[in-house]
Amino acid sequence: MMNFKNLQKNVHAYLTYCKDVFGAEVLINREKKLTALDLYRQEIENCTKCSLSATRKNFVFGDGSANAEILFVGEAPGAVEDEMGLPFVGLAGKLLDKALHHIGLDRSEVFITNILKCRPPGNRDPLPDEIALCEPYLHQQIALLKPKVIISLGRIAARTLLCLPSDTSLTTMRKQHYEYCGIPFCVFFHPAAILRNAGREDEFFADFEQLKEKYLKN
Fold it and tell me: CA–CA separation, 140 vs 142, rounded Å?
């Protein structure tokens, strides 16, 4: 016979775990109205257009607010992102969160995604045919979000979206002002690059301070 006290204890432990990991809001029983972005996620999350669908664990649509004014774009999900189905949730994601907090933002107030929605094997760079099939998804996300500014995280995402020569340096791109889909487009360091070169962390945070100065004024 089931021991009710043990069951109650296990349920309480599980609910505590959910609260600690996902926040108290996950325990509130209420209906959430689906946004146009939610509906679009449902429309494309079972995509099988390229071979990455066969090797992925999760389709990584993106994460954040459907009303975000700032859109961050990387090149593709990594291993942790593929496992969890969310973008930038590993060590690089923690550094991105730290940079957002530095300018008074939380990731729930912005939107974060990648050009590719599925992880390339071995974290290799996206292939041209994969980009061609997946970039229209990003275009539709932009059309639904209507952000004030798009931030490319890293040189690969920037060169891919802007169709720049492969020898265009991150230093050069960070100094330029671009547009993508008619929206201001800035190029920042990829957080993973800063984890490998902590000496440039001040520059990384300085980019976010400039973002705040230009786009977060009341």
Answer: 5
Other Cβ atoms within 10 Å of 149 Cβ, number: 17
User: What is the sign, positive or negative, of the torsion defined by CA atoms of 81, 84, 198, 214?
Assistant: positive
For residue 163, give the DSSP letter.
Answer: T
Residues contacting residue 75 through CB under 8 Å, at least 6 positions apart: 114, 115, 116, 125, 126, 154, 156, 157, 160
Tell me the pLDDT band of 19, cut-offs 50, 70 and 90. low
Strand, helix or coil for residue 95: helix
β-pairing verdict for 70-74 and 111-114: parallel
Q: Model-level pTM?
A: 0.84
State the Cα–Cα distance between residues 55 and 63, nearest whole angstrom.
Answer: 21
